[in-house]
Amino acid sequence: NAGVTQTxxxxxLKTGQSMTLQCAQDMNHEYMSWYRQDPGMGLRLIxxxxxxxxxxxxxxxxxxxxxxxxxxxxPLRLLSAAPSQTSVYFCASSxxxxxxxxxxxxxxxxxxxxxx
Amino acid sequence: GQSLExxxxxxxxxxxxxxxxxxxxxxxxxxxxxxxxxxGGAPTFLSYNALDGLEETGRFSSFLSRSDxxxxxxxxxxxxxxxxxxxxxxxxxxxxxxxxxxxxLQVKP
Lengths: 116, 109
Fold this sequence. Notes:
- Chain A is an all-beta fold.
- Chain A is 0% helix and 48% strand.
- Chain A contains no helices and eleven strands.
- Chain A has strands spanning 4-7, 10-13, 19-25, 31-37, 43-51, 54-57, 64-66, 76-78, 87-94, 106-107, 111-115.
- In chain A, the strands form two sheets. In chain A, strands 2, 4, 5, 6, 9, 10 and 11 form a seven-stranded mixed sheet that branches.
- The radius of gyration of chain A is 14 Å and the shape is globular.
- Chain A starts with a strand and ends with a strand.
- By secondary structure, chain B is an all-beta fold.
- In chain B, strands 2, 4, 5, 9, 10 and 11 form a six-stranded mixed sheet that branches. Chain B has a five-stranded antiparallel sheet with strand order 1-3-8-7-6, with no helix packed on it.
- In chain B, strand 9 and strand 10 form a beta hairpin.
- Classes of the chains: A mainly beta, B mainly beta.
- The A-B interface holds A 30-31, 33, 35, 41-45, 48, 50, 56, 58-59, 90, 92, 94, 96-97, 102-110 and B 30-31, 33, 35, 41-45, 48, 50, 87, 89, 91, 93-102.
C-alpha cells in the first residue's frame, strides 16, 4: 500500500518556468489537498478537492492551479515560478468528512522546491 | 474564514507532562485534530476531537470544548523523541483543513 505519493522530491526551477507537482493516492480517498510550508511556519492550504471534478481555493491559491480528473490524482501546477514560491509542498488526502474515518489526513513525504 | 492560535514554543523535561493549547475561529466546525512533525518529515496524525471531552491515545490525549472554541493536546511521560512541532488543525463541514502555526516542543534531559 503506497499511501500518498508525491513527485518530484526535489526540484530547482528558474524564475518564470512552469512545472507540475504530482500527487497520487491509492486509498480511494475523496478529499485531497495541497499545502506549502515555509521555514518555521505552519502549513498553509493552497487548493483542495472533495471529489473528482471538484476543486476549491485554500488560503494561498495565487500562482497555482489544480485539477482533479480522477479520484487518485491531484496535480499542482506552478504557472510561472517566482522566488516567493520556494517552499516545501505537501499533498494530503483523506476520506470525506461524512465517513467515520474521514478525520485522519495522510500526508505525502513532501516536495522541496527552490526557485532561483 | 478559519484561524487558529497556539503557542510558538514549549520546553519541558523528560518524564514530565506538557499541555499545548489551541484556540480557533471557524465558520462551520467539523472537528479539531492534532499532528506531529519532526524536522524534515511529513506531519503525522495524532488525535481528533469532534465532540466535547477528552480523547486518549496512549501517552497522548486531546481535549475539546466547542463552546469555548478551545482544545489542547496533553503529552504525558515525555520522551526525547517527542521533541517536534505540533499543529492543531480545524476542519469545516466541507472538509477543508486549516492548520495553526505550530508549537515547537523541546524536551530536555
